[in-house]
Write a structure and sequence with these properties.
The complex is a heterodimer. Chain A is mainly alpha-helical. Chain A has helices spanning 2-12, 16-31, 47-65, 72-91, 105-127, 137-144, 148-167. Helices cover 70% and strands 0% of the residues of chain A. In chain B, 78% of the residues lie in helices and 0% in strands. Chain B has helices at 4-27, 36-43, 47-66. Chain B starts with a helix and ends with a helix. Classes of the chains: A mainly alpha, B mainly alpha. At the A-B interface, helix 4, helix 5, helix 6 and helix 7 of A face helix 1, helix 2 and helix 3 of B.
Chain lengths: 168, 67
């Protein structure tokens, strides 16, 4: 984290020498691994590495999508990527997309209103017992992601969204 | 006569549609509405916000894939 802060400080500087230093540190952060060795062949961002990573993610999602609900294996299939991303997010964060310094409060309020409405609508269905005449979003989505390929696709999207969050 | 089930589904469709419209508007430049990536990035600036959003993501996975 300290190296990342230094890189960010150098990047914000107007000094050209510091900017060069920031580029070097950023490159170092993106390549370095704790052991100095990489599990995947090819340089970072190479087509081979991307293909292998993609295949590993889709393969994992396919296996996880086929597990029986409410089983220990299904729980572990969710907790494992959560633990891996948690370690990456706090232990060895990737080069992050710079967050904005501020967001427009009025613009953000539209999001908050819609999300609050979604939670309220969902809560009203759950409160009523989520019967067929007033189903919750969960009970509407679960049958849609029932087939194995659809569930695997949804799992892949969930994994990729987790990685997108870590990069933010 | 619209059934209560249909009303509930229409409600979800309208709200999710509104969220999609907000995202489309947020991706246009010179717009006050932030895109989802922008406001999530802003919320995740402090470590606590980052932990909260990642826990929400984990909960979503558990809710739909483990139970």
């Amino acid at each position: 984290m300290a190296a990342e802060d230094t890189a960010r400080q150098a990047a914000s500087s107007t000094n050209g020498r510091d900017r060069g230093r920031a580029d070097t540190i950023a490159a170092d952060l993106s390549v370095r691994s704790p052991t100095g060795l990489s599990l995947l062949p090819g340089s970072p961002g190479s087509p081979i590495r991307k293909t292998l990573l993609g295949a590993a993610i889709v393969g994992y999602a396919w296996l996880a999508g086929g597990l029986a609900p409410l089983s220990t294996r299904a729980l572990l299939s969710v907790l494992l990527p959560g633990a891996v991303l948690g370690v990456i997010a706090y232990g060895k964060p990737p080069e992050r997309i710079a967050p904005p310094e501020s967001v427009d409060v009025a613009g953000l309020s539209y999001w908050i209103i819609c999300i609050a409405l979604l939670f309220e609508w969902e809560a009203s269905a759950v409160r009523d017992g989520s019967h067929g005449w007033h189903p919750s979003l969960t009970d509407l989505i679960n049958p849609l992601i029932g087939p194995h390929p659809v569930k695997a696709a949804a799992f892949t999207i969930w994994l990729l969204s987790g990685w997108a969050l870590v990069r933010r | 006569m619209v059934s209560t089930r249909a009303e509930t589904i229409i409600g979800f469709v309208v709200i999710i549609g509104a969220l999609i419209i907000l995202e489309i508007l947020g991706r246009h430049k010179n717009n006050r509405i932030p895109a989802v990536g922008e406001w999530l990035g802003y919320v995740m600036r402090p470590r606590s916000g980052r932990a909260l959003i990642l826990l929400g993501w984990l909960w979503l996975g558990w809710h739909y894939f483990a139970r």
